[in-house]
Amino acid sequence: MSDEKKFAGYICTGCGIGERLDSSQLEMIATREGKMQSCKQHEMLCSSEGVQLIRDDISNEGATHIMIAACSRRAKVEAFNFTEVAMTRANLREGVIWVRPDEPEHQETTQEMADDYIRMACAELRSMKMPKASGEQTLNKTILVVGGGITGMSAAIESAAAGYPVHIVEKQGALGGQAADYSKAIPTRSPYKEPRDTGVAEMIASIEANDLITVHLNSTVARTAGAPGRFSVDIATESGTVNTETFGAIIQATGFKLYDPSNLPQYGYSKSPDIVTNAELEKLVKDANGGPIKRPSDGKEVKAVAFVQNVGQSSTEEGQLPYHSGIGDLIAIKQAMYFKDQNSDCDTTILFNNLRTPGAAGEDFYRAGQEKMITFSKGNVSEVVPGDSLEVKFQDLILDEETSMQADLVVLDVGMIPNSGPDPYAVPMVIDEEDEAAEDTPPPPSVSVDSILNLDYRQGTDLPHLKNGFTDSHFICFPYETRRTGIYAAGPLRRPMDMRQAQDDAAGAAMKAIQAAENAGKGMAAHPRAGDLSFPSFRMDGCTQCKRCTVECPFGAINEDEKGYPMFNESRCRRCGTCMGACPVRVISFENYSVETVNQQIKNVDVPEEFDEKPRILVLACENDAYPALDQAGMNGVEINPWARVIPVRCLGSVSLSWITDSLNSGYDGIVLMGCAKGDDYQCHFVRGSAMAHERMGKVGDTLSSLNLEPERVVVYEVAITDIERAPKLINDMAETVEKIGLSPFKF
Amino acid sequence: MTEVIATNQTILVVGGGISGLTAALEAAETGKQVVLVEKRPYVGGRVTQLYKYFPKLCYPTCGLEINQRRAKMNPNLTILTMAEVTDIQGEAGNYTASVKISPRYVNDNCTGCGDCAKAVSAEFDDEYNYGLGKRKGAYLPHRMAHPQRYVIDPAILGTEDAEKAKTACKAGAVDLDMQEETVSFKAGAVVWATGWQPYDANKIQPYGYDRFQNVITNVEFERMADPNGPTGGKIVRPSDGEVAKNIAFIQCAGSRDKNHLLHCSRICCMATLKQTHYVQEALGDEGKSTIYYIDIRAIDRFEDFYQTVRENPNVSFIKSKVASITQNRENSNPVLNGVDTEGYHRYANEHDLVVLAVGMQPSVDKSSFPVDIVINEEGFIEPATENGGIFAAGCSSDALDVNRAVQQATGAALRAIQVVNRVAGTEG
Amino acid sequence: MSDLNTAMTERYRNSFLMEVEANVEEGEWVKMCMQCGVCAGSCPLGNAWEHTPQKLFMMIRAGKREAVLSSDAMWMCTSCYNCIARCPRGLPITHIMHGLAHYAKRLGLVPKNQPTQQFSQIFWDNLMKKGRVNELKLGLSMYFKDGFGQGIKNAMANKQLGQNMMKAKRMNAMEFFGGHGIKDTSGLQKMIKKAQEIEDAKYQGNS
Amino acid sequence: MAKKEVSYYPGCSSQTGASSSNMMRATQTMCDELDIQLNEIPDWNCCGASIGYGGGGELPRLTLSARNIALSEQHNPGQEIIATCAACWLSTREAKERLHEDANMFRDANTALNEINLKLNNQTPVRHMVEVLVEDIGFEAIKAKVKKPLEGLKIASYVGCQTNRPFGIAEESFENPVYLDHIIESVGADSIPTYEKKVQCCGGALAFSEPEKSQEMIHGIIEAAYDHGADLIATPCPLCQANVEIYQDQINARFGSKFNMPVVYYSQLMSVAFGRNSKDSALDGQIIRAKSLEDIAGK
Fold first, then answer.
1. pLDDT band at residue B365, thresholds of 50, 70 and 90?
2. What is the predicted pLDDT for the residue at A3?
3. What pTM, to 2 d.p., does this model score?
4. Contact criterion met (CB < 8 Å) for B300 and A475
5. Interface with D, mutate which of C28, C79, C118, C204 (most D CBs under 10 A)
């Protein structure tokens, strides 16, 4: 596309816009003030002929920048989908006529609202560039899988099945992970009645037979550098040799460890060899190899076994797990069946509290266990007394009595602990203004665990933890959301799960990894701005190496070069603009979203002189939640004060303080910022964006007092997409505040 | 006439709920051609009818907005609404699907302006609100419905409402002569994501859902708790509109029961624990929740959510499958009869409102299923190789919560991609 | 408190459960109970007995042999079938209750003078005599089960009732002498004797 | 309506001079009107009822019913066995099904039957009289027969246990079966749809052994009927009828109530509505007289 810009405006007069607004005035504003070289009106711009009208101008008139004044940018997206040009949309329907009463006395202010939205859209358009891929990107289809257990093997097999080459890096000398030691597995196919083969052998065989899969045993990841599409990974073997491979994306499947019950003396784990964990029992059964299962202490055949469930799990006690493995009861049923199938006279008792056998498979398997005469008792175990015959003391909750039973062997259901690396954010990152040197040393890891990925990232060596060490996504709707683009966790590392779930999860992670590699190849953003081609660049001469951007990026996308300048790593970037909001010297920008594109909108709003008594309220609304809420308010006909001028932002984290100061300086009377929920249960789609914004706006107070303006002129809110009544109210409240404290003195 | 461009490298996704939508988007964002077939007039399925998600208590429409934006902007994705797959022929890598599209009586000129709805007067039970509210005969199913196109209820055809709607529409979008049509097209792989339906509470006779007004279901309770819902977020008794303060939740209403659903529906425990938050939110310490359960099955990592609810003094737990509900003739209060099985304590507890935690019934009907497929006795599609290029996603495969359903659907998308990539490989 | 009749080592063992499976009508279902308690809440006699069905099933699994067999809970069953209709696991609870009661009776562990046990025995003997139940004799023998004196008292207490029934021709004094019966009484008795033998043989085999 | 022949199993309490001989009479009248011919099973024996369990074991009890079915198959071939007594119907149908499911049990029962040269094929349906009314004849046909609609009568339909569970009538709900309400409405009376004791057990099995327990239940059943303003209670079950009717004096003594609630059979309602007199309708068999019905029958 030639660099010559051609601006074309279009005004839709449908949906009542024509009736409610003076469209010829809008057209005049677009051409005169908005500098649109052409501006056309259409009574139904989204209709096929309306769209054709625009298409023709693009192909015949060479329009490169188009301004569409019609409905909300959220409406008719498919119709107004002109990927080859830069485009802005002025929201005259949801944003103006639907939120204003249709009465003569309001006509003037409603028109002014529309006029301003035209000015803003044109101004934004003029400072926009057409985003195009940077050329930095490369297509690398090879996937790295870290960990060779069930999950890792599945991820490799699934990726290869889609035609993508895979490397597996496994610390041990063989594939298979924990499952390799299991005798059998929980059934994964109906009827869910009998334990099944673990399938480990078959998986290993199919991997060895697969040309697309390369396995590195006795190996670890010594260093991971780069970004999706161009990860450069040093694979180190025990022997010390290191070879470097490049990958498109990474799947981490490093599994779990088991909780150590010796922390809980009441279960006597360390006092008797006949008190074992569920994992240890698997070995015991495997060694018995089909014969009678013997207890460790004296090799006596086990005639009675007690399964103590929920050991150190779902507990509020210090040093125990606040969560539950979720599968302990299914494992106990499976293991009780080991005994029953070997010798039906063996007594097996499962002492549980809430029996967790969910889904179709779970409930079927529970009944199958009962069929085999496994005894289930709702009981809280208080103590396991070691001895030749072990005594299990418990409260039988059904029979409502303190009682006890004898067993030759006691099996403890202990929980899973994710095997993830150190959490980069165990200690919050702060910029030490004084001591520049301090930053070169990376933050200390949360616990003294070895790094797994050894990421060469500014923000730490491994995937951030969500909770309790799990590297799960925070988002219900997006379970593979990750804060390290192109790196996906799978299996019990993410969340406790059994083998069937782990295998499905591996497939999901493989899906995302493949997608990340493909999109990196095209220079397209990953979720949630999937397909976005714009990316941040910065003006080096203006940069003060303050490192705010590198520290505040929620995705650890930005590294620093040796001089301390930011390195953006486009394909790690999620295009939220938090870096832009962080930059005190305004040198960071996207082609189609920058300090300038918003500043121009702010500047071009017509701020009436003081005696007009027409205040102006700037609303910066997150495009993901607050803006849709305002749209829906429009659909519901909820009124919004006519002084308000709403500008959608990619994320509140992208809001530059300069927008606030500039708008105050140019006479705005109030500013309302609307971002998503922050905190533990945050709903910000860019994780920290909203939180950062709130933090930064905390400092606005100083600016205001320096201008001696009232602090209540700038407010920051958490707004949810459901705040259909509340969001408008917050704006209207500001109007009342301005009414109270009077107009800004900064009008010209 | 609807045109569908598809090849044997196209992925057909059946069902546009959160699972189907996810599978479709993940595949489309990997550059695959996808056709999504949805029975309802809009995508998003049942999550659009939920007030909040556990355990974050965040809003389903928040994620829906992102997913719908993804859908609007992705050129690889074709969405057919009010459409049902009636037949699938062929094998992996080469299927031919027949899809029946019911008339919406509104074409895609619709701007979503709502003039048609303003013009008509007749009202109907609002299925989006499980009949707790009313809607017009020309309507947008819900505020965030995608596609943002109105629907004309066939019931008003031939009435003057239909003509009113037609004349009201300046976009010429109302087409009363629209006919049902059947289109057929190729697909290399199929992702089956027809989801679930709430188990019919009328069948659980001892609980008298069909006889007692103050016995409702958990899905109805979601609508009731939603401030944008039919009661404006007020938790009220259907019998007299009074605020319900003492609320009973009955777990396994239809689940884990050979008379109803054999399986455990997995989500109901967490859903109820979540709903006690609604009660707390709406009524503070005034609101009391009592949960009658067999086993509390909080979902592994979410177990801490259960712990926090347990600590709430306004929530109590009784280990008991309620035997029957009777009604206090004076005040229409439901009376729950049963035995607390921890020890032996009989109860006849009176509550203002009873919420039945009804189970998930898979929307997969073996008898009418277009192809021969392995379905287990609970009605879920088995992960069987015999199923060829057809892969279950979400609740067609098992009773799953949203998080797991989406996770599982993402994997299903890959399995579909494996098939079409093989086709691409062989066809060069 | 733990029961003395249950040897420590026998607790939560399958021994008694197996005994029940072998000797009690529908006993093989006991292990399938999931302790939801719907039977307990559905029983119209719930308020009258000490052990609910679901609790009896747990006691069986916990090996509380005597506590179960000497319980009078089973004898409270009115055979209303509520529990069967509602049990989510499809246990034929009514029949298991009858079976447990019958087994307790065979072992002579029924609580002394359990009235329903006595009545059901009287009922059975009554029908065995002539192949059909003789309501008058049934009633009288019930009144007189605790001796002549008590019998007269009971009879007087129900005198009005009796007269009413006679007046309505729904009770017939002549029944006391002979009364209804089937023709082939001996055949019936022979048949039942045979059935009993077969059943006894089965139980012998089990124990 | 074509004549319908059935193999009839009346049961002990329906015999002349027995506690539900009145039902027997009304049933006969009803069947005459509906053109149903009752062919009694020759030399039928007692079903053992549910209470038999204390004395007889499982097989002996099943064998009792097996004999009746075998006799029916021998003497009334091709005819469905129809019972009017809940206990008789339940025991017989249960026996049929148990012997159908359990091959060994079936073999053993036949071994016992062999002692008296009987053989059980177990191919005969065992049905309750109301199934015939509801499924074969239908409410419309019943309506059509009504000569004296029971107008103005408010009748509580008391179904009880064993007619209802475990088998139920015409796949109706166990908790709220409505066939009896429909019958009541078919004969022109008003039913009480919200009568909550409809399927409450009357404790019949304990009436003799533990009267205080059963009478407490009966008290609830009658009280609820009064609360709903019922003139009568109607039931399909002889045990229910007897229990709920005959102990009202004792209950009044025990609970200080003033109950005097007539309890009648559906068959009595029908024969009155069909225009038959009090005697044919066995109203003289009431211990608490059903005056309102007598008046209509007398007209």
1. confident
2. 66
3. 0.95
4. no
5. C79
